[in-house]
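Service request form, structural biology core

Requester: graduate student, group of Dr. S.
Request type: structure prediction, single chain
Budget code: on file
Notes: please return the result as C-alpha cells.

Sequence provided:
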Amino acid sequence: MALLVLASTVSWTVDKHFCMGRVMDISFFAHAEDCGMKAGLALMENEDLRKSCCEDESFTMQGQDELNLSWSDLDLEHQLFLVAFTKSYVELFVPLDELPVPHEQYPPPKLVKDIQILDQVFLI
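Core staff response, request fulfilled:
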C-alpha cells in the first residue's frame, strides 16, 4: 500500500534521445545522454540533415498533490460497498464459543455384522 501511495504522488519524467529515428537512450528523472553525433553534425553545412538526425523528447507525468479523501467525496454506491465490505470482513474475526460439528444431526450407521471380524482384519 505504501508503494502504491509513493508511486501515485511522485512526478515521473522520462527523457528520450532519438538518433536517425532510433531510440538511443532512455532516462528516468534525468537528462538522456546524446549519441555523440551532434559534434560531428555541427561541422556539416546541410541544415536539414542536422535537424533530422538527433532529436530529444521529454514526457512528464505530474503526481498527486492532495491525498485527503473524505467520506462525502464518495458516491452512495461506493459508500454502501465500503460499509458492507467492512462489516463482512470484521465478522470473519469474531471468535466462536464452540466449534460447529457438521455431522451432529446424523446418527451413525447401524452395524448388522462386524466386517472387521468377518474379513479377519485386526489392528495390532
